[in-house]
Specification:
- With 756 residues, the chain is of the alpha+beta class.
- Among the domains are: 42-209, no CATH class; 320-512, no CATH class; 615-752, no CATH class.
- It has 17 helices and 32 strands.
- Strands 4-5-6-7-11-10-9-8 form an eight-stranded antiparallel beta sheet, covered by helices on one side. An eight-stranded antiparallel beta sheet has the order 18-19-20-21-27-26-25-24.
- Strand 10 and strand 11 form a beta hairpin.
Length: 756
């Protein structure tokens, strides 16, 4: 790496074709990028203690770009010291003492604005938007031009999104481009309030003053694909819905097959064809220290002289529980386990675990400790041996075990004691696997060793570690395919040949998809590289160098002083594909729950063209609320399920509203009134009899079950009558009408959300 950096530096010094991406303007605008055939890492500015002059410059620089209202008369700041991973920055705050409103700006030592945040406590900032997303994009553009003009011309708009009803913000995202090539490691984000139209947040993540390679490539995308195929593959593995795996749900869990890339990151240099497996590199200038970094509690009265069926059932369960002594012997008499000779106390507790089907599992939890008194004269002042284990209380099988190991370091003489390593990795593995066959034979036979490695250092010889333990990781397999959520783990001491760590994680309620007819890894890789996300782009490679602590006169120093971080920008082809699962049967891109992935698109309809007439529809579309497809069909009657779907997308949760009838049936005015009232938390109040009057001429047509809801809906402004003061309770609601009613519901919910 040192040689690599040196070559880059020397190449930059000799190069004659370094040109500025933009000319340096006389107004003082800085060039944001420099292009060159060689990408040169530039050291960050050396940070020093802040001065009053520098603070003054920072304040004036910010106020040239951002208008601070005079009522924001309170000013404060703090200085954030940088380290090897981030630069120092000024954090400036102006506050209105009357209401607490503030403007906060952070800038780097070159007075580039890094972030902007404002909060006006007098403005309404949550609720239904007053503006469409497209109407406020120019606000975001203009704000970037104002606070970071040197950045604006190097931006490409990526997308816009709605942050949520309670924040009321539209978020506009941009990424950097150079030479027409995306540079997504550098981004700008602007947040504009959809009610006020004012910018309240901006963040500029930018690498300034670092050379950018030219956009000229030596490799085509197809040639890069060939190199990628030679350096990566697709692995066929089982996956399951992560949330169900760890929720304790005992129902059958589907294990579906996917192909996934063998590398988390890989790219190909577009100029040299070099393959990169990381964007973060570590360089140590001290070769001698170089290491690779790679339970029912309800109170019910009952006859105290009789046993209930439930009590009898639990008593019956205990008939099959092994004794405490037998559980302890399962550990202490197992010759394969490491138990320190100084351990002299053992406790055991019977624990019950109940799953969602109310099935009980009993486990003996065993704790073993060394309770010798501390003898400071002999130097025994820190180490206490211990071990713990779980034993199945019905079968007597060991479920897990862990024992501490004594250290070979002599604290008194400050040296390592050498010990003989009597077992190598293969011998230790044989010991572990013999134990596994005795304890969990079925699980072991359906597992595959995926990794073995050194587990602890026994001692050092001249700073060189001598390893004393071995760790083995097995993963569950089905028809030869790995299921990574289940596995067996064990560790063996190379000195004694004893097991000091063992556990397994296994779910017996897995339904595995068959790998029959799955495509080959090569075919899967072709599908993978055809997805959106495989492209030519610029990226930042971060190089952190460790410099050994030099001889100093000072006693204290900042540890970050021994690290420096440099950045290089490189032009690469990389498959930054998300989600990265590929169906082994169809080649389709899959979501992380196994469903087929489809790119999220904004709601746009061919039959909704008049902006003013259809503004409510377009506003909800910008709030991520709408119907799938190219057409809205405004006069189509809406169903109960569809109303619930729209409310669910708003974040109000899903309800089947069974009291309203079949969810797939049309919904009329009195029923939608009840649905809204239920969602607002007023259902019980609406069911009170004999107290409600609506004032509508056709009140007699309203079902008595819905009268209270209709009256409340009128009072809250949710639904109105026609020009003749008729409510028309049996009229079905169209999609267009539903959108207007949902906007009324949002407004009512915002007004009343603190009171129910």
């Amino acid at each position: 790496m040192q040689k690599f950096l040196a070559v880059l530096l020397s190449g930059a010094i000799l190069s004659s074709n370094i040109v500025l991406a933009d000319p340096v303007l006389s107004s003082g605008n800085e060039s944001t990028a420099v292009t060159s055939e060689a990408a040169v890492p530039i050291s960050a500015k050396v940070d020093t203690s802040p001065t009053d002059q520098e603070l003054e410059k920072a304040i004036l620089a910010v106020k040239k770009k951002i208008t601070i209202p005079k009522e924001y008369s309170e000013f404060d700041y703090y200085y954030s010291y940088g380290n090897s991973y981030q630069n120092s920055s000024w954090n400036l705050t102006w506050r209105n003492p009357e209401n607490g409103s503030y403007i906060r700006v952070a800038c780097d030592l070159n007075n580039h604005i890094v972030s902007y945040n404002s909060n006006d406590y007098t403005a309404k900032v949550t609720g239904i938007p007053n503006y469409l997303k497209k109407e406020l994009k120019s606000k975001a553009d203009d704000f970037i031009k104002k606070i970071a003009p040197e950045v604006y011309n190097h931006l490409a708009f990526v997308d816009s999104s709605y942050q949520g009803i309670y924040s009321g913000n539209y978020i506009y995202t941009y990424h950097r481009t150079e030479n027409g090539i995306p540079f997504p490691d550098n981004t700008v984000t602007v947040r504009v309030n959809s009610l006020t139209g004012e910018v309240n947040y901006a963040n500029i993540n930018w690498l300034y003053d670092t050379l950018v390679p030219s956009g000229k490539t030596q490799l085509s995308k197809e040639e890069a694909s060939k190199i990628l195929k030679e350096n990566m593959t697709m692995n066929l593995v089982y996956r399951s819905d992560y949330s169900r795996i760890y929720s304790g749900d005992s129902d059958t869990i589907r294990a579906y097959l996917v192909y996934e890339p063998s590398k988390n990151y890989i790219s190909v240099d577009a100029k040299t064809g070099q393959v990169y497996n990381s964007k973060y590199q570590w360089v140590s200038m001290d070769d001698s220290n170089k290491e690779a970094v790679d339970e029912d509690t309800s109170d019910k009265s009952m006859d105290s002289g009789k046993l209930t069926e439930e009590e009898i059932k639990k008593i019956e369960e205990l008939k099959y529980i092994i004794s405490k002594d037998k559980a302890i012997k399962a550990i202490t008499e197992n010759k394969a386990l490491y138990i320190d000779k100084n351990i002299n106390t053992i406790t055991a507790n019977l624990m019950k675990y109940t799953n969602s089907k109310n099935d009980s599992n009993y486990v003996w939890q065993i704790r073993m400790n060394d309770t010798r008194p501390i003898d400071y004269e002999k130097g025994f002042d820190y180490y206490r041996a211990y071990a713990y284990a779980n034993v199945d209380a019905k079968t007597g099988k060991i479920l897990s075990f862990y024992s501490s190991l004594n250290s070979n370091y002599d604290d008194i003489n400050q040296k390592w004691n050498e010990v003989e390593i009597n077992y190598d990795k293969e011998q230790a593995r044989e010991i572990l696997e013999k134990f596994l066959k005795a304890q969990i034979k079925d699980r072991f036979e359906n597992s595959k060793l995926v990794e073995d490695r050194h587990d602890y250092v026994a001692y050092y010889i001249d700073k060189t570690p001598v390893y004393g333990g071995y760790r083995y990781d097995y993963q569950r397999v089905n028809e030869g395919v790995i299921y990574p959520y289940n596995g067996i783990y064990g560790a063996v001491d190379g000195v004694t040949g004893k097991i000091y760590n063992y556990s397994s994680n296994w779910n017996d309620n897995i339904k595995f998809e068959s790998p029959k007819n799955a495509m080959t890894p090569e075919e899967a890789l072709d599908h993978y590289l055809s997805k959106d996300g495989y492209e030519l782009r610029y990226e930042i490679n971060e190089v952190t160098t460790y410099h050994p602590d030099p001889v100093r006169e000072e006693r204290y120093y900042d540890p970050s002083d021994v690290y420096t971080t440099e950045h290089e920008i490189r032009l690469v082809y990389t498959p930054d594909i998300s989600p990265y699962f590929i169906s082994p049967f169809t080649g389709e891109q899959l979501n992380y729950d196994g469903s087929v992935y489809s790119k999220t698109k904004p709601y746009e309809y061919k039959d909704i063209t008049d902006i003013e007439k259809n503004r409510p529809i377009l506003l909800l579309s910008d709030m991520n609320i709408g119907f799938e497809g190219e057409y809205f069909y405004p006069t189509k009657e809406i169903t109960i399920a569809e109303v619930n779907m729209l409310l669910e997308k708003l974040g109000y949760g899903y309800s089947t509203e069974q009291n309203l009838g079949d969810v797939n049936s049309k919904i009329n005015k009195e029923k939608i009134a009840q649905l809204f009232i239920n969602r607002l938390g007023f259902e019980k109040i609406s069911k009170l009899q004999g107290i409600y009057q609506t004032g509508y001429k056709d009140q007699h047509l309203i079902d008595t079950d819905y009268l209270g809801a209709v009256a409340l809906a009128k009072g809250l402004g949710l639904i109105t009558a026609d020009e003749r003061n008729n409510f028309n309770p049996k009229n079905n609601i169209t999609r267009e009408e539903a959108i207007h009613l949902i906007l009324n519901f949002i407004e009512a919910q915002q007004t009343n959300r603190y009171y129910y």
